[in-house]
Structures are given as structure tokens and as C-alpha cells.
Specification:
Helix content of chain A: over 70%
Radius of gyration of chain B: 27 Å
Oligomer: heterodimer
Largest sheet of chain A: none
Number of helices of chain A: 15
Shape of chain A: elongated
Distance between the termini of chain A: 17 Å
Largest interface: A-B, 70 and 66 residues
Number of helices of chain B: 16
Strand content of chain B: 15-25%
Radius of gyration of chain A: 24 Å
Mean pLDDT of chain A: 85
Structural class of chain A: mainly alpha
Largest sheet of chain B: 6 strands, mixed
Shape of chain B: globular
Number of strands of chain B: 23
């Protein structure tokens, strides 16, 4: 895990400094200042950009070892506290949409598989089609317009209470529901063909038991993998939703940072994202191991 | 690492799901007390005169002497200058009641307003002015973009209500520059950090202005309450709430829902939304006078535009009226000169170039760019007439305008290549004068026209470089330097007239439109009047009558 993080941080550090734009100039243009020699020199010095590349990288790593992410070029506040203030909003959004996606898509997927080519399957197919093709921002505006402006059931903006999270989470979950329910449906249909299902049925087990205890265990594995990978994507993909619903999360902050060439923030964010991605796949692997004893055995042999 | 446990898979999944849901609920519950508090303050607010607006970004730490992340508008409405910028660039007394300029034009003596108190009860006097100047001058390099700062030789407290600033050289725009939003505005003494240097941070935003910051949640909301001890005309509303809403369309929906009472500013919502709101009949809309200009910089240093005839052809070839009305729906106004005539010294009676395709064609013919039989792009010595225009790629206005100009130029046989770039890359192209045409905006009121001329003669910004193809460039740039040193009004107007005439005749800019501030509000918002200053706001003059 450490090598991955280190590698990610170095690549990010290097790529940032290879881009042709000077963050000092970016700062001045955002502040609506005509760049003069003196202002540029002052800003470069303030931002620590006057030092050579390796010195900057080592300095940054050293700070990182002390859990110090540096100071944002733009907000002039420590990156760690800026990210810490925004992480809960994004995390909350990511987890709640993942939860909604799982809660809706598991029953939907099962229903679609068991009622293959019947009404339920068609409904789930239409949903999947919409989920895959409706752009997120459009869905967000539709939800705001009908649920918040017309019906006045939900607040428009903010992140103060759980009600504020309902519409953004649904927006994010919509596309996931489409993927997960179709993945689960396919997995279930494949598993239902397996001889052990026939055997279980022959043993006279109730179909609920067959599905719940035997089939689902196999069929859900692609969903677990997808969900593990989506965790990172969700964290990174909240940008649009955060902007539209005016939620003070990490996404909007990062977007600004990219426009401004705010190196410390970009670096800190990339590091956290790398961590979340690793965490997501690791968790998925662990759940996989629970679900499939064969994986554990092969792991045990290697270890 | 994983303990072996056969069966019970369903229960594990179930537990997992439940725990995710519970985790969600739990963190939700934690935040609910805050929400009840907020709705309580909102209820209370309704009984008073409260104006709720939105802004794309957080207001920032309200440090009057620093830049980003401090938002212009917030610094502008919160802190006060010595001199205010009124209509048509007229200078009006603010914290200085009056001022004298010595005969050599170097010493500015300000007679400060008496009986002005800061919000913490302390007096506004020459000593606190000195304290503010000290920290501004300590960070001189950072502020060197503002001409007057680099010209200041010394400052002096003469008595409690008199303060003098001595400049190294004569510099006429000094007075205008005392009106800018940052860094020349005044923080109360108790707001300074212990070392007196505000470069890093301030202790608290203590001001003489009409508003006091009473509640602040970063990235969410800022609440300003009326300063009842304000020396000037007090605002008619008691409270101003600024909500952070980054997205323009979401802002429109918030207005429709009644969450906010006013949309104000430049480019805060898309022009389509503005027109939709205007046509809906549910809201009042208004547009300010010109606050800045949108223009194309024409690069005379290289390529086809080194030839004056080609530059003149460009002026006649673009149908500006159709362009500006089509793209901005009348929100911006068609520009005939680079600086709008409502700016100081800019009303010099230049004759606009008319839209005339035939004139453009004959000018191109005269320049030697002929249209070969059966082709639609002109050629000269076997080279095609191709030019490159650089614009800001994601910009909602520049992009459609660029496309419209491309089709206009096609009519006269010019092939326009469009290069849409992200802001910082576009800035880089500008500095190196690596373009034929480039979308650019002036700094606007109160910076122009003096800031405009200095961006023209200072190397390094890209405009000076783009004017290297002019035969009279040295004379022009010398006039630009001289005009800033004039003390005599007639002499100054004469120089400006000459500068504007040369720029116009040499067609080094294609003026397109004048930018405006827009406002959209329900009809209970009354008396909204646009300030002349680009970055100031009308919140202290408007009223609410429900």
C-alpha cells in the first residue's frame, strides 16, 4: 500500500510541475492583478516555488511524514484542515449513495432474474437504460426542479441535515442502481443454471433458501467488486453533484484547485483518492474472501 | 487472515447492509441540532428586512489588504476607501472629507472625516490610517501592480484628522486608485495581528462600513447585520445573508423557489437563464451601464494583421450588432471604442467603423489578398489567408462569439482557426503574443482608462508585444507614459484623445461589447441602483417592501 501511495504522489508531483502554467501567475490572474516582476517574485517565494524540484518533493514528503499536507496556495489555510472539513460531506454522500444503490439494486436484480422477461425484468431494464444514459447534472436539475422547487419537499442547497443529502444521493445512486441490478441479474441467471441449484431444488429446499443462501453468494461477487471500485469513483465523482447542490465537499474544492494550479491541494487530494481506491478494492477483496471459501484457501496456500 | 466460517452468508451481507444504513443514520442525527438553529434564525429574520443573496464562492477572511481567497465584492461592501468612485468616474468623499494636491502634483493631503467610529467603538483617525498604510507598504511588492503603491515615497500623520501621502513622481491616477477595493481600505486597529502585518491574517474584520459580519460558516453562509453607528446613510435593510451556491443554474432555481431575493453580478448566471427569467414576467431584471469592455486584441507584430488594411477589413467584416445581441440577448452592449464613453477622458468622438462586407473585401483586395476563382479563401503569393483566434475554451460567451466571428470572416474570404484554451494556457499565449486575435477584457471601472494605458505600454503582458507592428509605436507608448504624469486637465484630455484616436485608427483592437452587471429580483426588492464601480454592490441602497 505504501509503495502505491508513494508512486501516486510522485507521479502527481512530477506531472504538476511539467504543466506549462506557473501557479504564481495563476494566483495573480485569479486575483485580477497584472503580473509584474516584483509580484511574481514575491508570490513564488511565498509559495516555495523558487526552490528546485527535488528539494520541493523531499520537503513535501517530510511534511507528509508529520501528517502535514502543506498550505493551500489560494485559501492560505493548511490543506489537512481544509480537506478534513470537507471530507465528511463527500464521504457521507459517497456512502449514502452506495447504500441506496445496494438497497435498491439487490431486490431489483433478484426480482429481474427470477421474473426473467416479465414485467419486472422490463422495468429494471428500462431503469438500467436510463441510469446509463441520463447525464448526472440533468438528473440533478430535474430532481431539484420537481422535488425542491415545485413540490417543496426538499431543501435546495446545503449539507446541514440528512434531508439535504437525499436528492444528491439519489442522483449519484441512479447510475449505480442500473449497473448493479443488471450485474446481479446476469450473475443470478448464470448461477441458476449450475448443477448445485438443481441439486438444492431436488433436496426440496425452499426457493428463498436456495436463492438467499446458495445462489446469491456466487451471483453477488461481481457487484461487490464493482462496488469496491466505485467507492473511489464515487468519492471523485461527487464534483458535479456538490456544485449543483452547493455542498461544501472535496469535489468542488479540488476542481477550483485544478483551475488555480494549487499544488498542495491537488497533491493532498490525489493522495487521499489513492488511499480511498486502495481501501475500496481491499474491502471488496475481503468480502469476496468471505463469500468464496476457495479464495481464502488459495490465499492460505500462497501465504 | 480471514477466519473460516461456512454458511450464513446471507446474514453477513445483511449485517453489512444494516451497518451501512445505520452509519448513515447516525451521522445524520449528529448534525440536526445545527439545522434547527438555522431554521430558527431564518424565522426570526423574516420579521425584519432581510435580503438573501447568493455568491459562487465563500466570502473569504475579509482581509482588506489581501487578495484571493478574499472575494472582491465582500471586501468592497465591507470596507471603505478614502475616496469613492461615483458615476462617470466622479470622485466623491468617503472617509476623506476633502483632499488637496500640492502644486508639483506629488503631495496628497487628506482631510479625514471626523466622528467616524469603527465597529469596535474606536475612532477613525490619521493614526489608524498610518497603521493601514504601514502594512500595505510593508508588502509593497505584492501590491506593485497598483501604480500608486509603487509611487509612494512616504506617508505622514499631520494631525488627528489630516494625513499626507508623498509620491516619488507625479502620477495623476493616484486619486482614482485610492478608490479601488484592495488593498487601500481601512481595518480597525484591534483587527491587526500582533506584529501589525496583515499579509498572513487579521484578528477580526473591524470596519467603518455599513455592515458588520455577525455570523459566518465557511463555504456555507455569511450573515451581515446593519451597522447602526454607521457615519453615512444607513442601509434600509437590517440584514444581508450571503449563501454560497457555486452553480449558476442552481442559483436560478433558488431564486424561483424564494430561497434568495436577488441575483446580482457579472456572469453569475448564464445569459439564457437571464432571458428566461426576464421573459417569465415573475421577476424584475435590470442591466447596469458599461463597467468594462470585451474586445479582441489584434496582433500587429506578425502575420496578415501586420498590414493596416487587413486590420481595417476586420473592423468592417464583423457584424457586431448581430453578434452581441445574438449571444448575449442584449445583456452586453455593442462597443464601438475600446473604452466606453462613460469612462473618464474616453468621450472623444471617434467615428465607429460600420459593418460593411464590401468595404472589407475591397480593403483585403488592396492589401494584395485576392480571392482565386472557385475558391473561398483569399491568397497572396500562394499563401492562404488564415488567422488564429485564441479564446477561453469553457467560456459561455467567448465560445459562441468566436464561432460567430468565424462565420463572419468566412464571408470575406478569411479562414479563422479557433483555439479554445483553458484560462492559464490562454494567459500564456497572451504573454508571449502567440496569437493573431485574442479575446480580452479591460479592467473596467475604477481602473480605466489609466490602467488600460499602462497595460499597453508595459512589456510582459502581451499587449505591448502585440503592438510592435505599429510604425508610431514608440510615440504612442511615450504618450501613454506621459499621460499618467500630467497635472493639467486639458493636457491630459489632449493626450488621451490622441492615444484613443491612434488605437482606433490603427485598429489594434476590435471592440466587441461592454460588460454590464445584471440584477434579477422579485418585485418587493425596490430602489436597486447599480454602483459605477465594477466591484461594488447595491446592498446598502436598496430596500425591501413586502
Amino acid at each position: 500500500m505504501v509503495p502505491v501511495l508513494l508512486g501516486a504522489s510522485f507521479v502527481c508531483f512530477l506531472l504538476l510541475r511539467l504543466t506549462p502554467v506557473d501557479p504564481a501567475k495563476a494566483y495573480l490572474s485569479v486575483s485580477n492583478i497584472i503580473p509584474t516582476e516584483e509580484t511574481l517574485r514575491v508570490v513564488r517565494e511565498q509559495l516555495g516555488l523558487d526552490r528546485p524540484f527535488w528539494s520541493q518533493y523531499v520537503h513535501w514528503l517530510w511534511q507528509l511524514c508529520q501528517l502535514d499536507f502543506g498550505v493551500s496556495f489560494f485559501t492560505k489555510l493548511p490543506v489537512a484542515s481544509e480537506l478534513a472539513a470537507r471530507l465528511p460531506v463527500t464521504a457521507m454522500l459517497a456512502f449514502s449513495s452506495l447504500a441506496i444503490a445496494l438497497i435498491v439494486s439487490i431486490p431489483l436484480g433478484i426480482a429481474a432474474a427470477l421474473r426473467k422477461n416479465r414485467a419486472m425484468d422490463h422495468i429494471s431494464r428500462v431503469l438500467a437504460f436510463l441510469g446509463a444514459s441520463v447525464p448526472q447534472f440533468w438528473l440533478a436539475y430535474l430532481l431539484i426542479y420537481f422535488m425542491a422547487v415545485k413540490m417543496d419537499w426538499f431543501p435546495l442547497q446545503g449539507a446541514d441535515t440528512w434531508i439535504h443529502y437525499v436528492l444528491p444521493s439519489i442522483t449519484l445512486a441512479f447510475a449505480l442502481i442500473a449497473t448493479y441490478s443488471r450485474l446481479l441479474r446476469r450473475g443470478l441467471l448464470e448461477c441458476l443454471e449450475q448443477p448445485f441449484v438443481l441439486y438444492a431444488n431436488a433436496r426440496g429446499l425452499r426457493s428463498f433458501t436456495v436463492i438467499g443462501r446458495h445462489v446469491l453468494r456466487h451471483a453477488i461477487r461481481p457487484v461487490v467488486t464493482a462496488a469496491g471500485m466505485n467507492l473511489g469513483k464515487l468519492f471523485a465523482g461527487t464534483v458535479i453533484v456538490e456544485q449543483i447542490f452547493a455542498m461544501p465537499g472535496m469535489g468542488g474544492f479540488f476542481l477550483e484547485a485544478v483551475f488555480h494550479r494549487d499544488y498542495p491541494v491537488i497533491q493532498g487530494y490525489v493522495l487521499i483518492m489513492a488511499f480511498v481506491f486502495i481501501l475500496g478494492s481491499l474491502t471488496a477483496d475481503m468480502i469476496q474472501a468471505y463469500l468464496d471459501p476457495r479464495l481464502r484457501q488459495s490465499m492460505g496456500k500462497e501465504g | 487472515m480471514v477466519r473460516k466460517r461456512n454458511g450464513r452468508i446471507t446474514s453477513i451481507i445483511l449485517i453489512l447492509l444494516i451497518s451501512i444504513v445505520m452509519a448513515g443514520c447516525q451521522s445524520n442525527n449528529n448534525t440536526s441540532p445545527e439545522a434547527t438553529k438555522e431554521s430558527a434564525t431564518q424565522e426570526k429574520a423574516n420579521t425584519e428586512k432581510t435580503l438573501t443573496i447568493s455568491w459562487p464562492k465563500d466570502i473569504g477572511p475579509l482581509n482588506p489588504h489581501q487578495y484571493t481567497p478574499n472575494e472582491f465584492f465582500a471586501q468592497g461592501m465591507y470596507y471603505e476607501p478614502l475616496i469613492g468612485y461615483g458615476e462617470g468616474g466622479k470622485l466623491v468623499p468617503k472617509l476623506a472629507e476633502s483632499w488637496d494636491i500640492s502644486e508639483d502634483g506629488k503631495v496628497y493631503t487628506f482631510h479625514l472625516r471626523k466622528n467616524v467610529k469603527f465597529t469596535d467603538g474606536s475612532d477613525f483617525d490619521a493614526n489608524v490610517v498610518q497603521k493601514n498604510f504601514d502594512t500595505i507598504l510593508a508588502n509593497k511588492d505584492m501590491h506593485s501592480w497598483l501604480g500608486v503603491i509603487s509611487q509612494i515615497e512616504k506617508t505622514k500623520v499631520i494631525d488627528a484628522n489630516t494625513f499626507a501621502v508623498t509620491l516619488k513622481n507625479r502620477y495623476y491616477p493616484a486619486l482614482q486608485e485610492f478608490a479601488v477595493v484592495r488593498p487601500l481600505r481601512f481595518l480597525g486597529a484591534a483587527g491587526f495581528p500582533d506584529d501589525g502585518n496583515t499579509a498572513e491574517s487579521i484578528k477580526s474584520p473591524i470596519t467603518t462600513g455599513p455592515w458588520v459580519l455577525s455570523e459566518y460558516q465557511k463555504d456555507k453562509v455569511a450573515v451581515f447585520t446593519r451597522n447602526d453607528n454607521y457615519w453615512g446613510t444607513k442601509p434600509k435593510i437590517n440584514k444581508l445573508i450571503v449563501k454560497v451556491i457555486p452553480d449558476g443554474e442552481a442559483r436560478v432555481l433558488a431564486l424561483e423557489k424564494g430561497d434568495i431575493d436577488l441575483i446580482y453580478g457579472e456572469g453569475v448566471i448564464s445569459l439564457d437563464s437571464f432571458v428566461a427569467l426576464r421573459d417569465s414576467g415573475k421577476f424584475e431584471t435590470s442591466i447596469s451601464d458599461a463597467v468594462a469592455s470585451r474586445a479582441l486584441i489584434v496582433n500587429t507584430a506578425k502575420g496578415p494583421f501586420a498590414d493596416l488594411n487587413v486590420r481595417l477589413a476586420l473592423q468592417h467584416a464583423v457584424n457586431k450588432t448581430a453578434l452581441v445581441d445574438g449571444v448575449t440577448n442584449g445583456v452586453e452592449k455593442v462597443a464601438d471604442t475600446i473604452i466606453s464613453s462613460n469612462f473618464p477622458y474616453a468621450n472623444v468622438g471617434l467615428k465607429p467603423y460600420d459593418y460593411n462586407v464590401e468595404t472589407a473585401k475591397s480593403l483585403l483586395d488592396a492589401a494584395g489578398w485576392k480571392l482565386p476563382e472557385g475558391k473561398d479563401v483569399r491568397e497572396k503569393d500562394g499563401k492562404k489567408l488564415e488567422i488564429e483566434m485564441v479564446y477561453m475554451g469553457p467560456d459561455q460567451v467567448e465560445q459562441p462569439m468566436a464561432a460567430a466571428i468565424q462565420s463572419d470572416l468566412k464571408q470575406v474570404g478569411i479562414n479563422l482557426k479557433l483555439t479554445g484554451l483553458e484560462r492559464e494556457l490562454r494567459n500564456k499565449r497572451m504573454e508571449t503574443a502567440d496569437f493573431d486575435l485574442l479575446f480580452w477584457g479591460t479592467y473596467g471601472a475604477p481602473y480605466d482608462p489609466h490602467n488600460f494605458v499602462s497595460t499597453n505600454y508595459e512589456p510582459g503582458y502581451g499587449i505591448f508585444e502585440s503592438q510592435q507592428g505599429l510604425s508610431m509605436k514608440d510615440e504612442l507608448h511615450q504618450q501613454m507614459k506621459d499621460v499618467l504624469l500630467t497635472t493639467d486637465e486639458t493636457e491630459r484630455q489632449k493626450l488621451y484623445t490622441s492615444i484613443f484616436t491612434t488605437l482606433h485608427e490603427q485598429a489594434v483592437y476590435l471592440p466587441i461589447s461592454y460588460l454590464t452587471n445584471i440584477a434579477v429580483y422579485p418585485n418587493y426588492v425596490k430602489d436597486l441602483k447599480f454602483p459605477a464601480h465594477r466591484d461594488e454592490t447595491p446592498f446598502d441602497t436598496l430596500d425591501i417592501q413586502k
